[in-house]
Amino acid sequence: MKVLLATLVAPVASVLMAIAAQAELKTQLVDYKHGSAILEGYLAYDDSFQGNRPGVLIVHEWTGLGTYVKERAEQLAKLGYVAFAVDMYGKGIRPDNPKDAAAQAGIYRKDRKLMRDRVTAGLSVLQKNPLTNAEKIAAIGYCFGGGTVLELARSGAPVAGVVSFHGNLDTPNPADARNIKAKVLVLHGAIDPYVPPEQVAAFKKEMNNAQVDWQLISYGGVVHSFTNPEAGNDPSKGSAYNATADRRSFAAMQQFFNELFQP
Amino acid sequence: MKVLLATLVAPVASVLMAIAAQAELKTQLVDYKHGSAILEGYLAYDDSFQGNRPGVLIVHEWTGLGTYVKERAEQLAKLGYVAFAVDMYGKGIRPDNPKDAAAQAGIYRKDRKLMRDRVTAGLSVLQKNPLTNAEKIAAIGYCFGGGTVLELARSGAPVAGVVSFHGNLDTPNPADARNIKAKVLVLHGAIDPYVPPEQVAAFKKEMNNAQVDWQLISYGGVVHSFTNPEAGNDPSKGSAYNATADRRSFAAMQQFFNELFQP
Known about the structure:
- 2 copies of one chain form a homodimer.
- Chain A is an alpha/beta fold.
- Chain A contains 7 helices and 8 strands.
- The first copy, chain A, is globular, with a radius of gyration of 20 Å.
- The interface between A and B is medium-sized, with 25 and 25 residues.
């Protein structure tokens, strides 16, 4: 009888240990600097994974570093990545209304050098983390952050790939695409009024002219902010969550990562 | 010692059995009819899978049913699907030069009712196969075949999804998109000269107007026929194989199938 119990207990114990191991998500606010600016990013990783691992840089929407991208960082950490959500605006600068958000985003959208340097400061934090395999880093971003990771790529940053979710695709300097070393994946709502067909066409031309390795997925009937439940459910407003496109775009990103980070 | 050997032999035997099981690919030419036309399709399935399973209909390029789509059928059979490559042209009609291929394809492209009815005759063969789960059928096609599976969808056919690889996207009857029940995935070379941006834009408008569940992936720097090694390696000719886009598009199709056929 004791033997029987032991054979039962051992698997149960190992299941419990596996559950405990899965739950070792570590998160931490990280202060860092860019010039005189104090920034506060958010790091997430799973302590049950061993050794260094691919890193994912995450750039927030125009509202700044908030719950949404923190949850994305945690989601990626659970998949085995070191995830670092950067702070583009500065510690405590978290606009809570469209006017202030547009003003903050505008600072960086109008000054692409500042945008690049600011996001590169965040990249540096991730690169230097001892858990990160610095040869295997991707950058992803949402809306404003999607445009930012494309700008990071245009700076020639040593990232394996960038993924834009409903991001702006415009650039004042299309010729800079020649600097791009990263593979590029753009996930786009086909009727996103903030990223209209002319902008998409100009982006494709920019990428083709520079012979970038790029892909763009259009999701039919989908508008801006489709990955964010906070965007609500009314597409007529131009921004709305779409659960199907959210799921599909996350899966497309994972497949892209599998290609980038294959052993 | 005997006990030790037994513990060694059992796993080895089961590995060998698994290899043998994987190899049970069955293929067969299938004669069938559409009106008075005699057609010869190609069926492939893996006999080591049990029970009925999702079916994939495959429509050939303008050269007709040949080695290329037969190999695709076998590839899909090994993944666990019942695959049926249809014959659009008629038994023995296998054009071996562009002029004859264009003439054959033109017959069906100019008569969309005939195209729909002809491909539906092939669908019927797959639906009736006892190995097929008729509730779970997708249709895929290459070039001419990509256009054909879109036309099948526009006919209102009861397929869960259709996938076009470098297919034509045009239609004389955009309003027919309202009949579409299938989810639609289009895999497109971004610089395909045979499917130019105006055709892509018209297709998107057609799909959006009819509120179809559609997705379109553009592959940067990629021309027509990108999945077919027979297309050669010179993109300046407008058609060329692209190994990366081939791999990515196949993976996108698999992900799409996973969504369509989830239990």
